[in-house]
Amino acid sequence: SLRYEHGLLVQGATRGDGSVGEDVTANLRTLRAIPLRLRGDAPDVLEVRGEVIMPRAGFDAFNARALAAGEKLLANPRNGAAGSLRQLDPRVTARRPLAFFAYGIGVIEPASLLPPTHSATLQWLRTLGFPVAPEIATAQGFAGLIAYYRRIGAARDHLPYGIDGVVYKLDRYVDQQALGYVARAPRWAIAHKFPAEEQMTVLEAIDVQIGRTGAATPVARLAPVQVAGVTVTNATLHNADQIERLDVRVGDTVIVRRAGDVIPEVVRVVAERRPPHTRPWRMPTHCPVCGAQLLREKGASAWRCSGGLSCAAQRREAILHFASRRAMDIDGLGERYIEDL
């Protein structure tokens, strides 16, 4: 979110949890794509919403330089962009290959300057000096939306930045106001995701992780594989019932995808590649952390550690939850410090 007063950039903040974000003004000032002074007749107050991204070419070039210098590589463009904005030193941000696209407006004073439609607003933002994604378009009816979705999907792999879908919005603001919101979600906008990218790899082991409530979750340990620009080595198997449905075994070749382009999961087994003498996997009888018995409630899919807070894993996860942003929001109390405790 970029706030301009009388045409000058005065503040930039991250989205955060939707209510509270971080002030990253100093870092945003280093981005060439973000105007420090607006062109033309600017409103008294203008809040512009947009997204900072790291184009693929910039990401590849940055990692090539980092590799040559023996420095740490960025995991993927998405994480690279987010991490770059949160740097304590703006000079570090300035060296990152970041770009920016504006996609909307928050506050505008006087309100009479706001164009009547979303598409006209994006055109107006261009005249003020903001980059806007060149792929934006208007469409009419279901057929028009699906045609746009398919056109962007066909071009997806050739775009200079990664995307996971398209967003449809009602164009006229009076129509948006008529539909309103459900909680924070607008009724006048909807995301249409592309199918998740899938890749093949080998399942090397199945471990059990213990969560805050004692739930025992099987996790697949995989031979490293690139999925949607991220190196995946672990994937959720959800629960023992899911493993039984998929008939996943250690040594199997499996298909992996990132659900929502975020969470890695095992989709299915490539049965014809199964090596001989594999055995069906069974949930262990005792917690791998504290040794307490694992129990399954009647009719439930989850197994749970019976150790309660005597289990180190449950204590750690409980403290992490207590300190998290949606709970007590204790800044600086992260996983590493809790492990030390």
From TrEMBL:
The keyword RNA-binding does not apply. Pfam families: DNA_ligase_aden, DNA_ligase_ZBD, OB_DNA_ligase. Its cofactor is Mg(2+). Its EC number is 6.5.1.2. Residues 1-327 form the NAD-dependent DNA ligase N-terminal domain. Keywords: DNA damage, DNA repair, DNA replication, Ligase, Magnesium, Metal-binding, NAD, Zinc. It catalyses: NAD(+) + (deoxyribonucleotide)n-3'-hydroxyl + 5'-phospho-(deoxyribonucleotide)m = (deoxyribonucleotide)n+m + AMP + beta-nicotinamide D-nucleotide. The keyword Nuclease does not apply. One of its GO terms (molecular function) is metal ion binding. GO terms for biological process: DNA repair; DNA replication. SMART domains: LIGANc. GO terms for cellular component: cytosol. This is DNA ligase (NAD(+)). It comes from mine drainage metagenome.
